[in-house]
Amino acid sequence: MNYSNARTTKEKYLIIGNWKNQVSSGADARKIFQGVSKCAISLRHVETVICPPMMYVAELGNMVTSRNCVIGTQGTPTLSQTVRTGSISPEMIFRSRARYVIIGHSEERAHGVTNDEITAALSLIVQHPLSPVLCIGEIKRDTGHKYYRLISEQIMAAVGHLSHADLARVVIAYEPVWAIGANAQPCSPDECAIMVRFIRKTILDMTDNEHLAMNIKILYGGSVDADNAKNYLTTGEANGLLVGRASLHATTFNKILKIADTL
Ligand code: PGA
For position 262, what pLDDT does the model report? Predict the structure, then answer.
């Protein structure tokens, strides 16, 4: 089977800005969101998602004017359906008008968030009209290619228990940790394409559902900027991008959005 999924003109690229904890005031958050939204709502081939720190989600949710530019949240361990200090529920996320939830980010995993916690968060999220953005990725590459097994284990642990209908709502973001950060070694678009195909094959092996495997959205998320975005979306075969630092300024992020819109 050929795991390369040629994009049809109907499909929009999904471009997600992950602000992490990098925007330090509500005024700044509003300003960046306004700047991005103005550009994003006019694009025909891109759906834009901004994932601000939880503090600003409700405020920015009130500023959403189009399905073309929506809000998401970040974080796994803060999610709970039962009474728990320091926690929020998926329902609150939905009512704040967020539509996506980033979970299993490598920075969370590095701070001890486990596959079990990620699985539990995913199960909660899919009970609501929210799309989980499941981050997976290896810390380094070994010459024996054992990282492939790690990737398939991360996928199976997180989504292996979901029904096909729930799995179809999951977005997978591949973030090679070795390619993230200012001084990291870049992941080439070809390496990205190989991993996108491997993720599709893993989903197919797990579900025996070809339609699902070929249509699940797979994003690339490792130090994306306006110079490399196009290649990850074309040669890299990604259905979209998870952007960190380059999403913190509206002008820089808008450049990426406009590039994607022209492809
Ligand atoms: P970056 O972050 O784009 O700043 O490298 C990506 C990520 O951590 O998801």
Answer: 95
- Quickly count: other Cβ atoms within 10 Å of residue 16's Cβ: 24
- Model pLDDT for residues 175-202, shown as the tens digit of each residue: 998 888 767 788 999 999 999 999 999 9
| Weakly modelled stretches of the chain, pLDDT under 50 | none
What is the per-residue pLDDT for 39?
A: 97
Query: Which one from 47, 105, 108, 138 is the annotated catalytic residue?
Result: 105
3-state secondary structure of 229: helix
- In three-state secondary structure terms, 58 is helix
Torsional class of 84: left (φ above 0), alpha (ψ -120 to 50), beta (otherwise): beta
Report helix, strand or coil for 67: coil
Q: For residues 234-257, b (16+ Cβ closer than 10 Å) or e, as one string? A: eebbbbbbbbbbbbbebeebbbbb
Q: Whole-angstrom Cα distance, residue 118 to residue 100?
A: 15
**207 within ligand 1 shell (Cβ under 6 A):** no
* pLDDT 10s digits, 131-175: 999 999 988 877 778 889 999 999 999 888 999 999 999 999 999
CA dist 115 and 234 (Å) reads 31
Q: How far does CA 59 lie from the centroid of its chain?
A: 21
For residue 236, the CA-to-ligand 1 centroid distance in Å is 17
Please tell me the residue having the least CA distance from ligand 1 atom 8: 244
Query: How remote is the CA of residue 182 from the centroid of ligand 1, in Å?
Result: 9
- Return phi, psi of residue 136, to 5°: -135, 160
Tokens of 136: 């997976």
Whether 17 is in the pocket of ligand 1, judged by its Cβ within 6 Å, is no
Q: How many CB atoms lie within 10 A of CB 43?
A: 20
